Amino acid sequence: MFGVTISLTEKTPSELTGYLEKMKRLNADVVFASVQIPEENAETVKENLFQTGAYIREHMQEFVVDVSPRTFRNFSADELKQAGVTGLRIDNGMKAQEIVRLSEAFKIVLNASTIDDEQIGELKDAGYRGDFEAWYNYYPRKNTGLDIRYFVRKNEWLFSRGIETAVFIAGDKEMRGTIFEGLPTLEAHRTMPPLQAYLEMKHLYGIEKVILGDFGLQPDTFGKLEELFGSGIIRLCTENTEEKSILNMIHHNRVDVAADVLRSNEYRRVNRRQFEPGRTGARPRGTITIDNTGYGRYMGEMQIVLTELDADERVNVVSRVAERELGLLEYIKDYEYPFVLTEE
């Protein structure tokens, strides 16, 4: 499940609904916002919340807002409900009895980094009987995102207790203030391409709910995610492509997965022509090659190199995957995603 973050102070309702309409093309069904705001902005935020919430209630599945005891100086629980809010992410300082009361009207989301058995015990002692989720924070300041080893250990603890969780990944266009350096959960994801960060969260860490922390995606990134969510295809940009016939067709890695290369299952079958020896040379990771006549019956096989290989006079070097997209290759290999090669 994919989600987005909105700001009720930085955007107008029309801007927010326009943004949400666009993000529906990425199957976004979860919306997260904070209503922990200065009292002088309360009326503006309340108006924005109601107008945007009307769209969310009609078109999205979940609307979760960040709350603390201070929130309820400006909003009542009934007002949040009327605005279309379906879940509350509980910040520090809220007592167990109050969380239990709120759980009668809202899904409860706890802080994944701070939740422990003691807090769960306190909730149960206070009469909490339902399920809840635990979402991680996003971290605006560089170098403060979560450590991967800590994240893995915490996930093991959460999963062992059957607690569903959610994470944030950074965007790559309109970064949110006030620092404008991305809003990821993991520090390793701060500058990682959003598509790769999404795939890593889903496949390496088993996270089903991934939320975009920032406001924007570059058009190319948006297109890549739209293609992934719509048809399950990973699109790879290439550089220095000499053999145009490899472009804009759907390739599948062979089911008998090779150790060092991706092997296109389709290319040789649809390009039955002579490939004479051409440019050869060392084959670093991401090099795209076609076997020439020197390889006999393998002539015409297209490969993408996963592990650096030496030059081979039987193998023509015809293109290269863009450096920033090399991290996507493992997901094609390990999770059987079809892929399409395009030119920058």
Automatic annotation (TrEMBL):
Domain 6-phospho-N-acetylmuramidase C-terminal: 240-335
Residues covered by the 6-phospho-N-acetylmuramidase N-terminal domain: 3-225
PANTHER family according to UniProt: DUF871 DOMAIN-CONTAINING PROTEIN (PTHR38435:SF2), PTHR38435
Stated name of the protein: Outer surface protein
Organism of this sequence: Hungatella effluvii
Classification lineage: Bacteria, Bacillati, Bacillota, Clostridia, Lachnospirales
